[in-house]
Amino acid sequence: MQVSVETTSGLERQVTITVPAERIDQDVNKQVQQQARSRRLDGFRPGKVPTSVIKRMFGKAIRSDVLSQVVQESFYQAVDQEKLMPAGMPSIEFRKDVEGEDLEFVATFEVYPEIALADFSAVEVEKLSAEITEADLDEMISTLRKQQGDWETVERAAADGDRLNIDFEGFIDGEAFEGGRAEAMDLVLGSNSMIPGFEAGLEGVSAGDALDLNVTFPENYHAENLKGKAAVFKVKVNSVSGQKLPELDEAFFARFGIEESTVEGFRAEVKKNMARELKHALKTKLKDQVFGKLIELNAIDIPAALIDREIDVLRRQAVQQFGGPDAKIDPNMLPKDMFEAQAKRRVSVGLLMQELIKVNKIEPSDEKVRETVEEMAETYQDPQEVIDYYYGNNEILNQIKGLVLEEQVVEHLLASAKVIEKQVSYEEAIKPAQRGEAAE
Length: 440
Fold this sequence. Notes:
Layout: E1 2-9, E2 12-19, H1 21-38, H2 51-81, E3 91-96, E4 103-110, E5 124-129, H3 134-147, E6 150-153, E7 163-172, E8 175-188, E9 210-216, E10 230-244, H4 250-254, H5 263-297, H6 304-323, H7 340-360, H8 366-377, H9 383-391, H10 394-416, E11 418-423, H11 426-430
Parallel strand pairs: 5-11
Antiparallel strand pairs: 1-2, 2-4, 3-4, 6-10, 7-8, 7-10, 9-10
């Protein structure tokens, strides 16, 4: 077998492979003989079909099957011989495919990039920390009560936090625009679910009121034709509802799976959950920041095949998240560019992590794996049952080992970076990072 390799551009390689005709003929003859012994054809006794008949009737199909197998085997032999690392399946082009002559084909594919990790010691990383105050706890319990509150129609002017039922239609330069109309829509004042000025303009209205709201669409509005445009919304108020908050009693506590009879016990459980959420948020922000710096420091070429594969993963995750496991949505209908930046970041982080793990011989700590499993199990009624289940399921346990390995990579990088400690409020700590800060 002859092999030649050409770098066409960046990570793309073209490998030309020539397979001797003798090998093809040998494999074809072997298949012909096997079929002559096993095929049943009218007019011939079992196992007595002449090879000439098999060749005439099935020769093309047999040769096609043989070529498929030979191409696959010779491709992997070639990349192993040339020490290449394909990052995806190759595209195959036959240059010469004539019976009785040497087979020649070209395999085109991308390879994994060669990575030389840059020194991380000059990188500055901001490590946030926060405490949960009594005011934070009060605010959380207030939020939980609002989530479980009932709405009652009121005969008064609307205030912040009230729910309005409204009809509206929007106009720009006197013309109604698409998507600017709704009927019997519920809107909670202060929810910031509408463009700036819309909700503020409805404070003080009462049921039966009709009014015009003069607002301006933000410059960064998602609809291109509405960005920065001044609009008038004609609004009719159908009803005003106020929220009746539930009492802090056993029935309310039970809604959250908390078996407590006292307010003090409920507050302690809520604070424990807040602490768990805070720990996760701080860890996630630190990890995202470290990986962001790692990418900035190590500019690498990314194989398009890996990006496409990751986009497919993100598409499926999006369908499952918003449509549920039974969603009958083709993930490929979701635009590719929706996920491209996130996919590039995830692939970059993955490649750089692999190199860090290999160079520094990092392995998941059994102790840290155990700690992580026990921490996850804490949220369940029977933690030991969950722990036993995790350790009895290799697939789930390997996922947890992957998380632990990721954390150990972050710890390894932080050990050499310049870490700046910063105290922030609980609210700031759990607030999601802005898009672009953490795209992973």
